[in-house]
Write a structure and sequence with these properties.
With 213 residues, the protein is an alpha/beta fold. The chain is built from 7 helices and 7 strands; from the N terminus they run βαββαβααβαβαβα. The protein is 36% helix and 23% strand. Strands 1, 2, 3, 4, 5, 6 and 7 form a 7-stranded mixed beta sheet that branches. β5, α5 and β6 form a beta-alpha-beta unit. Its cofactor is Mg(2+). One of its GO terms (molecular function) is G protein activity.
Length: 213
């Protein structure tokens, strides 16, 4: 049976090895914790159809390996991504310190306009915390990122992270800031249902551009 949806968004899950990226993806898609999680080799893939602001959106999610030796392979998947979860482990200062490099990669290789949500994973291990909420919140603010702390184990904020990112992309499409027609936008129309809306939106965006000239 073919799925029907209004939009398709390409998503990435990026960050250092051991931060729980695959577990986050598994929790989001299967609604359960992945017990036997090994390090991802290269790239894993998952997809889910969600309801965002009254629209049906299919998320195509590429979970990338965090180990340096796979970096050249995973970088090729960045291209044309509309959104990303940038993940660190709240119990590991090392994974937090690496965030700037991951962020640079995402904005350089995917798109400067990629919508990114910073996820401080393993919130359930609060007693072993090495990175404070406030510190990470400040990093997110300085780099214009959204921010949530998540737990792939309990499921806390996992769905919200993906939906928040998708909602922001949808808002940018509706405001004309993102154009699904543009090559490499990481966004596709999902069916005939929205084609009639293309013209008015395009005209609005054009009018806005003329105003800002």
């Amino acid at each position: 049976m073919s799925e029907t949806y209004d939009f398709l968004f390409k998503f990435l899950v990026i960050g250092s090895a051991g931060t729980g990226k695959s577990c986050l993806l598994h929790q989001f898609i299967e609604n359960k914790f992945k017990q036997d999680s090994n390090h991802t080799i290269g790239v894993e893939f998952g997809s889910k159809v969600v309801n965002v602001g009254g629209k049906t959106v299919k998320l195509q999610i590429w979970d990338t390996a965090g180990q340096e030796r796979f970096r050249s392979v995973t970088r090729s998947y960045y291209r044309g991504a509309a959104g990303a979860l940038l993940v660190y482990d709240i119990t590991s200062r090392e994974t937090y310190n690496a965030l700037t490099n991951w962020l640079t990669d995402a904005r350089t290789l995917a798109s400067p306009n990629i919508v990114i949500i910073l996820c401080g994973n393993k919130k359930d291990l609060d007693a072993d915390r090495e990175v404070t909420f406030l510190e990470a919140s400040r990093f997110a603010q300085e780099n214009e990122l959204m921010f949530l702390e998540t737990s792939a184990l309990t499921g806390e904020n996992v769905e919200e992270a993906f939906l928040k990112c998708a909602r922001t992309i949808l808002n940018k499409i509706e405001s004309g800031e993102l154009d699904p027609e543009r090559m490499g936008s990481g966004i596709q129309y999902g069916g005939a249902s929205l084609r009639q809306l293309r013209q008015p939106r395009g005209s609005q965006a054009q009018a806005r551009q003329q105003c800002s000239c």
